[in-house]
Amino acid sequence: MKWKSIALIALAAALLGGGWFARAAWRAHRGLITLHVRNAPLADVVRSIERQSWQTICANQKLKARITLDVDSAPLDQVLDLVSARAGARWGKTYAVYAADSAQAAIENVLRGGATLAGAGFTNIAPKADPEAMEQMSGLVNGQPQAHSGPMVMKQNGAMKMFTISSSGAVEQWSSERIVMQASLAAQLSDPPADANPESAARAAAAVHGRSRLYYALERSPVAMAGGGGGMRSMSWNSSGPRGGHGDPGHPPSMSEIMANISQAQRAGRLRELSYSPEEQVERARQNATGKTQVRFESNETTK
Predict the structure, then answer these.
(1) d(CA 242, CA 230)
(2) Residue 278: is the preceding peptide bond cis (ω within 30°)?
(3) How far apart are CA 198 and CA 202, in angstroms?
């Protein structure tokens, strides 16, 4: 009887464990995330999302935000939108194509801000640089770059692209999805993909006899997000849609809404520029020339 009882207990435990695993696998497949955190370190929040999504998420080591968030069965993309907004960050997908096992640790170090892409032996192969957008961003007039009041955002083939001017005056392109490859393999790629997506990454890996892996990465945003870095307001989400918390209307900011707010902030910035006196305009031009002017994103969210 004793052995039968032990066997029954073991069987019950196995069934319960199997049921938990099956539910976790189903939720991970659907990308459903549940978080109830208050003033939690970003690193802890990222680890919780990784456990639930079965995805690898790398956060830049310079991001030191604390997050307050209340979500139930929210899509992974929505959760990353919310976390990024509170951390003053932006997130994207990086498809890494490599052959050597050591390259995996190298690209993860890059995504955490510990090294440059070239320094780790990688190169970006998609999406390709958009010369027209870069020229528009730099505002070339008779070969002379003109001052620009903020980032330019565009959506192309499902990926969000952002063009910004660095402190040195160079135009930089960032995409919400990209493919990076070991530089030693890139030389073997005769037909690089134009866009970044899972299919393009898989084809590129097959062409160079390598393998591809998806990473989600959080990095500092060039646009300061209002309310970011502290998670002052909680947001709830359940499987049937948004649910407001603490008086919140329950409308999580989608990527399109964030970009629309950026455009709105740009227009407001241009209006402010027109309102400056000639003396103020000269002073701001001097600040722009020395790289001291910072772009600020003014959200229409109300901090609770």
Answers:
(1) 21
(2) no
(3) 6
Domain boundaries, the chain: 25-297
Amino acid at 155: K
> Cβ neighbours of residue 5 under 8 Å, at least 6 residues apart?
none
**Residue (of 133, 136, 176, 134) closest to 157 by Cα position:** 176
Q: Name the residue type at position 247.
A: G
Q: How far apart are CA 71 and CA 91, in angstroms?
A: 18
pTM of the model: 0.64
The token duo for 72 is 């139930």
If DSSP codes are grouped into helix, strand and coil, which group holds residue 156? strand
Per the listing, tokens 């935000």 go with 65
Distance in angstroms (rounded) separating the CA atoms of residues 115 and 120: 7
Per-residue pLDDT of the chain (304 residues; tens, 9 = 90+): 555 555 555 555 555 555 544 554 544 455 699 999 999 999 999 999 999 999 999 999 999 999 999 999 999 999 999 999 999 999 999 999 999 989 999 999 999 999 999 999 999 999 988 777 777 766 644 455 555 556 777 777 777 887 777 767 777 888 999 999 999 999 999 999 989 999 999 999 999 999 999 999 999 987 644 333 333 333 344 444 444 343 344 444 455 555 555 555 555 555 555 555 555 555 555 555 444 333 333 333 333 3
How buried is residue 123: exposed, middle or buried, by Cβ count under 10 Å (0-12/13-18/19+)?
A: middle
DSSP code for 253:
P
